[in-house]
Each structure stands twice: as C-alpha cells, then as structure tokens.
Batch of 3 targets.
Target 1
Amino acid sequence: MLNRNAFEAVDRCLRDIRRDNRLFGGVTIVFGGDYQQILPVVPRATQPDIVSASLFCSPIWWQLRLLKLVRNMRVQDDPEEMQFAQWLVDVGHGRLTDADGNVDIPPDFCCQENTVESLIDEIYPNIGAPLHPPHADQFFSGRAILSARNADVNSLNHTILDLFPGDLIEVHSADSVMHDSQNNQDGELLYPAEYLNSITSSGLPLAHLKLKIGCPLMLLRNLDPQRGLCNGSRGILTRMTDRVMEMRLISGAHAGETHFIPRIKLISEEADIPFPLCRQQFPVRLAFCMSINKAQGQSLGHVGLDFRSAVFTHGQFYVAVSRATSVHRVKAIWGPNSSEPKTKNIVYQEVLQID
C-alpha cells in the first residue's frame, strides 16, 4: 500500500495537465486495498508516522466513494473454509489477540515438530529429489515459506538450497561507492570491497549469490513489465553464465515463457548505509522463502509460516496467514522459547475505523 504522498502527487499532476481542478483532473481512478494488511513502509517510524502516511489520512480519502468486497475468494465454500475465513477477519481486526499482543496458532497449522526441518518437510516434501518441468513449475509456483525478517529469509533460502539437488553456482557482485574517489592516508579506499560485499539491503541482491539450476528465483526490479519481468515475478533458473542467466517464469500471465536476465547496476540509498552503494549483480533472489511484505498480494497453495521472529508491524500476521487458498495447507513454527503455539499479532485499531 503506497504512501499518501504518491497519490497526492498524481492528483496535482493530473490537475495541472488537464487544467481541471477536480479530483485527479476529473479522471476516474480505481484503488484497491485492505487496511487489515500491511501499511506503507516508513523507515524508523513510530505508529503515528505509519498511520499518517496512509491514504485514508489524506484529504483525497474523503472525496472517494468506498466500495467493499465481503467474500474471501481464496477459500472454498465448505464449513471449514468458511470458518477459516471468519478467523482471518477476526485476527485482522485484533479480536483474538490477548493483552500481551499474542494470538494462538490453530492446531491445524502446527507441524509435527516446532523446527525448521519439520517446516521444510511440510512445504517442500522430497526437495532433494530431482524435479523436471513442468512438474517443477507447478511445484514451486504454488508454495513458499514466509518470514517477517530478511535475515531469516536469507538463512532459510540457503538451508533449502543445500538440500536442493545440483551443483552449486556462486556469483560475486562488483560493489562500489558512488562518486567515491577519496583514499585514506595509506592510499587505500575508505570502503574496501570486503566491507561493501557484507552489506545486505532489502532492495539489493546478495553480493555472494548462491544458486543451482532448477531453483526458484524472484526478480527484484522491473525489467520489462509488458513481458512479465516485474519486481516480485517468480521463475526457475534454467541456464547460467557469468554475464547472463536464463529464467522460465512460473507466475502471472506470462508463466512458461523464458527470458534472459542480465547483470545490472543497482543503487541503494537506504538510511542504514551512510553512502550510495552501487552493486552490479543479477537482480534476483532465491524464492524458496520470501518476506511477508513481499508476499502481499499473492495466493499460494501451500504456505509455511516462520514465526521464530515475531511480526513487527500492523497487518503482517494477517497477510501471512491469508496467503493460503485452504486452511489445510498452512503450516507454522513459532519461537522456541514459547511452550504453546503463540505469536505476536500487531493491529493498529485506528486504521480499522476508516468506514
């Protein structure tokens, strides 16, 4: 869900272009969203900062006509699925959350053991066996493990990659600092390559990218949206060289199409990094596991939930548990220090009072 500033900028732009002072210059605009889900991401923000960045805090909101969708299209019309749909609504509104902000994980979600190995076995059974197309496409397109933190996502991806059959391919990035021509007193660069390679960012691929032929990947940039190469598109690695990779898409309208992905320069200007970092690397990440934020908007047949690290913002728990198309295909693990299947559920109640 976008920051309100983006909508307000489009509104002002259309008014100027069309010389029409009506909302969006008189153009009909359709928005889609769910305020039970994750709000705009504002780095290092407090709860009021995140809430105020949402569209419903903009003057535009009060000029919109609100239409509601009341049927959950992901679940089927049987009693258990309807009960699951109602449970999703309840957790989305924070009704089943106790005084400590915890919510009980349903018994059907629990793995045989509260371990990573058990979760991987549930979501990726026989992952060590060879997979062949189109079986691999169908296998990976409908399943993923979701985690709240990028560090856990990377760790799980590499754990599953070790189990995946095939020879390991490691691609190293070329990292540099934009406009960095300064040296220290010894004539060495202020930021050595080893330090730059150690930096991880949510918008950048890893400096040391480990892959195997046949593994699932996710694009991190919009390369060619008309051909399905969008940020978040998933595919399977089919061939690989030092300068280009071949990937077969497994999601979206272009599923089954094969495309070449080049190494490109990506620049990160996140506040965590005290300089603009330029990384030349393939714009992909492993997609065995993905972050909850990245999974927003996707439907999956089999969903694994890694709650060892609790969610940390509004709507993350709701998004995670609502990605599945059936209550019977959701499995979860929780913090090892908890004797009961519980995890955090953060809900900003003021967000849900918009109607």
Target 2
Amino acid sequence: MLIDTLMKTIILKSLLVISQAAFSQPVSPFASIWEGKLNVGVELRIVFHISEVKKGVYTSTADSPDQSAFGLKCDTTKINGNAIIIEMTELQASFNGELVNDSTIDGVFTQGMEFPLVLRKTDKPGERKRPQTPQPPFPYRSEDVIYHNRDKTLQYGATITIPEGKGVFPAAVLITGSGPQDRDETLMGHKLFTVLADHLTRNGFIVLRVDDRGVGKSTGAFTEATTADFANDVKTSLDYLFSRPEVDKKKTGLIGHSEGGMIAPMVAVERKEIDFIVLLAAPGVPIVDLMAEQNHAIAKSNDVSAETLKEIRPLFKRVVMSIQSEKDSLAAFANTAMMLENWMVNKSPTILEELKLVTSKQRMEYVRAMVAQLQSPWFRYFMAFNPGEYLEQLTCKVLALNGERDIQVISQQNINGITRALKGSGAKAYDVVELSGMNHLFQSCKKCTLDEYSELEETFSPVALKVITDWLNKNVK
C-alpha cells in the first residue's frame, strides 16, 4: 500500500526551539489517512492519504482496497477552513466534505451520482482475512507470460500454471466477469481465479488466467470494448494455450464466471476444437430480463417494501427501452426524463423515497447516470444479448453451476434458461447444477447480500471446487 507521508528534517539547538517549532507549525488535522465505506449497492471501502507538502498546500492519493486499486491519482486537494474538496479527473470523481472533529469528515462522493461518505481517521486501513489465497511454494510450475493478438495491436499479461510431471495435460482458459478485472478476478480482496487455478492445477489441469484488456499487463481500452471484443481476447488466449507443448489440445476448454459465462459459449460455437466449457453463474435468459430480476433481488435483500418491489422490474425495463431506443444521448435523456416524471405522478411517497426519486434533482441524476451507462458501447451490446442463441449451438461438453442464493444472476431463472437451451443443442454431455447456500461468487453465504462478499473469509467454496473437478475428471480426463 502506498502511503504518502510528510518528511521533514529539522536541526534544533535547544528545547526552546523545539517548543517554538511545534507551536509555530501545527500539523493540519486533514493530513492523515482517512477510511470510509461507499454504499453503491455493495459496500466498497475507500481510503484517502492526505499530505500537507507545505503550509496550506495538500496532495492526496486514494485506494479502493476491495477492488485492489491502490495509489489512485487525486489531481487536486483543496482545503478551506474545515471544508475539503478532492478531485479525481481521470475517474470523473470527487469528494466534498467537512471536518466534523479531529477524527471525522462528513461528505459526499460523486461519480455520476452522489453517495454519502463519512471518513474516519485511521493509522492503518483494515485488512480482510482471505485464508484460501494460495501461498508459495506451489507443487506446480507458475509462469507470468506476455503474448499478443495476431496483428500485434494488443498485448495480454497472464499467468499459466502447469502440473508437475511429464506429458501433456488437459487445460483451460479462465474468463472473468463484468468490469475491468485482473487475472486473479480480485473482488473485495478475494482472488477467485487464483484459488480456482490453484485447485485445478493441483488436480492435473493447466490453467491460463489473463488480465482484461487495459488492466495489469494487458493493453487496450477497456471502456471502448464490448463483450464481442472480450470474446476475441479469449480466442487469442486460446491460441496461446494451444501453442504450449504441455497442453493436450484434444482436452482443452473454457471456464467463465458471470459475463465470462456468456463469452465461453460465444467462443465455443466458433472454435470447434474446444472440448468443454464450465459456466459459473452464467446467464441463461435475455440480459434485460436478468437485470430486471437482479434489481428486484438486490432491493429485496435491502428490505425494500413490497409496495416498492412491485415497481422495480417494470420501471427498469421501461427505462432501458426508453434509453436504448435513441442513439442520441440528449434525446434519450429528454425522453426518459419525461417518462419518469409521468411515471411518478401517482406513486406513493414510500415508493419515491425508497427508490430515491423524491426530488427533481434526484430523478435527473438517476436518468443522467442511466443514460451514461446504457449508451456506452459495452452496455448497448450487453443489454441486447440473448445467451440462448449461443447455448443452443453448442456441441462441446458443458457444466453449468449456479448458486442457489445468488442475487445477481438469479439461479432458477437462469438455470431453467440454460437447461432449455442445452436440451435443444448438440452438446456431447451436459450437467446443470444448483449449489445450495451459495452466492454469486460461490461463497457459502449467510445473509447472502452484496455487502457480505467482503465480510466472508471464504473465497470459493470447497464444495463448489470439488463439483468442478469431479465433473472434469469424469468428462475430460
């Protein structure tokens, strides 16, 4: 962790000088480490390291530990009395706060929308226990590698793990879920793909895990890419895996989590040499239906009233249709804003309060944020996607796992969709399994909320890991 500190060397000749220096140059109450939690549907810790480089001049860096992002650039740090403003231009984010006392700053974090954020002074930000994260020495080879796509326009950073011993081994490429992910699919301090790769390699499989484009050692612009572009990235990774002499090319496949479970069938339909795919919390229904159900499930987990819950699915679909029917952002904003104003006329105060749509400002911020998201290239492609069109064309072996308590990719909705599609496919063998008591990350959950991801010490249920390897041993080895 990068912690900016103010270093001063003072040569003092007497106790009197020390006393005078201490009182003439007081340390700013802002110059410290501050930690808070952003509630963006899930709680994310944010840490600011504020330093006073000279009297009245401040610099800051920020960390998002639960997203494994450290030393993020803060362009300006302005302090006026008890007020502070920190601006992060590249992330289009800012924090505006006021010093309440010497250990608390109360404020608002803005990134598209406004989120309350209370910062508290800390000596050292809290660290999460992650006992499953593998530690060396490993009973297998582990290599960090670099490779490129065919026209050399993109570079990929990855780690390949290879079992000990001679001969060729069955192999798999791991495919991350939504958002810019590193090769370990680090989420809330959990390294899902590190744990999965370690388990598979100990059980005789070569595993390639890869930084998403624009992340880590991989180049390219993540924000300009769609799921189709990520599928092309996987094809490049597959080509690299096939280039390794240790790989059994007749027993090679793909393992995808969440959006990665959309991508695996896309690639497998085109690349017939793929022997198997494993779908972890993958969608099985049109994404607009999945997202409507996800919004409903997350709201329910946050104890939203039954009255409000009835509104969530239809409102979400109306907003999506309104925005995506227009290519022009201004027209999309105007139409959706008008639709929302008409929608709220007969709605109760409870509904508007729970959805944070009481004031005109709140409604405009909501529409602005939704337009910005849904008009991005990735979201446009994503929301129009129907995974069934690819699942029905599969000819390889398939294992699909969904967590029974998943509130992001609802198990029954998507398992039923996957099963229907695979029944009409040419898959050589397939199994669709619901794992009891598990969430979207395949943790054994208790509350099974989004916040609990970071609270649980378990990264990947040993039960889920065993189901995967038992199926691979039976159907691939």
Target 3
Amino acid sequence: MKHLILRNLNAASQFADADTDHVLDVLDAVVSPVVRLYGVGFLQPSIERGPQLNFYKTVPADFRAELEAEESRRGPSLLVRYAAYDPLPFTFAELIQRRKPSGKDRWFFDLHRDYGVCDPFYCPHWPWLVVFKADRLQELTHESRAVLDVAARMAVHRLKEIAGHAALDASAEQLTPREKTALQYLSDGISISDIADRLALSEPTVKTFVRRATKKLNASSQLHAVALAVRNRLI
C-alpha cells in the first residue's frame, strides 16, 4: 500500500502533462498493483441522456457494444442514477445490498456478470465516474479504497482541466438567482406560500420562478426540476 501511495504522489506531475487518452494510461499504471482501470464515465449534464463512458482499452469490444446497445434501449442503469448523486466510493455488491435491484433494474448487473466482471469499484467525482475492477475487490481495505479514490480524483481533475472544467448545460446556466432560490427552498420541503413569505413576494411570482426554472431545465415536473438542480450542483 505504501508503494501505491508513492505512485499516487509521483503521478501528479504525469497527470498535469497528460492529454485525454494518456490520463487513462497514467491512472491504470498508478493503480495496477491493486486493481485495473475499467473505464471513466461522464455523467454531465443530465443522466436522462445516459452517460458517456470511455472504456479502457483492456475492456473487450463485444462487451462494450452490448452494454451500449442495452443502455440505448433501456436508458441509464440503476447504477448510473445512483452514482449521479456523488456518493462515497462503492462496489457492485454494496450497491446491490443498498438498493436490492429487481426486474428491469437487474439487466446491468446481470450483463456484467455474464462477462465475468463480478464486483467493480466505483469512485464518483461529479460529473465523472471512475471504475476499477479486480478479482477480489471485496478484500480491499479502507486504506486501499481511500488511495484508489485519490488516484481517481487526480485523473478527474485533469480531465476537467482538459474539458474546460466541463461547463453546465447552457439552459441550466440561464437560471436566475431568484429561480435558484425558489428551487433551493423547494428542495428543503418548503411550500410555495412559505417561500413567498420568506422572500416577501406574491405566491404567483414564486410560481412563475419555479415554472421558468422547470422549463429551462427541460424538466417534466416541479419535483424533477428540483432533482436536476440538486444533481447538477445548481443549488
């Protein structure tokens, strides 16, 4: 583990000079004593359109094709929806235990196991998701998980630099301060009437702010607008 920590420290300068493709090579080299890089996903600006997952070169082409076809047909998986909330690093087994997927939500997990990918390790760093794989991930120590997460964070930092820090969707950037405030209050469970009272505005005015924000975010409902605003770090 000490060797992996030193590799992380030494990798900082390598990441600083890496282009997009080389970032993945550096990351795989850093973590290879413990795990192998599986892929890096980009979840921004909205998981409703599915993630942009860049598989690492060691992932079989037929698996890539089947997964992409299934996501195109079924939409984003349970795992992608969970990762969008930027939780602490987690494994397949941990997610299954927490969410207990069934029915149509099982396809993502079943497909991976068909290809022998039993328990990937996910490190979410919004809006990116870094995925590692190993034969015995369940034996990763707390220290190992933390160090892998640091390596993932360094790679994501460089990818953000390359992408110009991954700007939010243009429509989301157009939210006004009042629209963001209204959504923030709604996310806290505060009613429209109470929001109006706090802001010293009329209820119709607050409803207008919420309606405009919902339209700008291309949300299907007020609740959906709040969820998108939280997910995209707008509030």
